[in-house]
Amino acid sequence: MKKIIALFLLFLMVFSLAACTKSNTPSDDNDIVDENPQDTVEEDDDEIVEPTPSTDEVEVTLYFANKEYVETGDESLEKLIPEKRTVEYGDISLEERIVKELMKGPNSDKLSTVIPSNVKLLGVEVADGTAFVNFAEEGLYGGSMQEDFTIAQIVNSLVELDSVERVQFLIDGQKAETLMGHIEISEPFEK
C-alpha cells in the first residue's frame, strides 16, 4: 500500500511540474501569436528618442602656421595666424572638436597645419581650467619646428575658450617628457 501511495504522489508531482513548464512551441492551432510585438509595448508619448545626439554650433578661433613663414623662415613674418571657423560639436566636446579641426587643416591656402597627419588624437578632457590633450604615441614624431608649431597651434586655439586656461599634453594617457623629442611637455602650457 505504501508503494502505491508513493507512486501516486510521484506521478502527481511529475504531472504538476509538467503542467507548470512553459513550452516554446505552440501546442495547437488555437494559440494566438502576436505578429507585431512592438504594438503590445505601451508607448510613452512624452519620450522622444533622437537618432543622433544634438549638436551645437559656435564660432571659434583656430591658429594655423603661416605657410610663408614655414617655407622661408623669415622672422619678420607672423608665425601663427588666426582663422575664424564655425564648428559643430555635441557628439564630442568643443575642446576635442577644436583639436580635430586643427588636425584637418585651414580653409585658407596661405596657412597650414603642422600637426603630423599620422598622429592619433585619443581625446581631450577639461578639468579645473586645464585641457588635457591626449595623443597616441604611435605616429607622434617630427622635427623641433613641427613640434613647436603643433604645441603652439593647439595651446593658442584652446586658451581662446573661457573654459581653458592652460593645456597639458599627454601621451597614451600619461604625462611625458616631450611630445616629439624636442620640447618639454611635463608641465601645462599657457598662452
UniProtKB/TrEMBL annotation:
Disordered, as annotated region: 24-54
Keywords carried by this UniProt record: Signal
Highest taxon of source: Bacteria
Official protein name in the record: Spore germination protein-like protein
Signal peptide positions (record): 1-18
Compositional bias segments (type: Acidic residues): 28-49
Pfam families: Germane
Residues in GerMN domain copies: 95-180
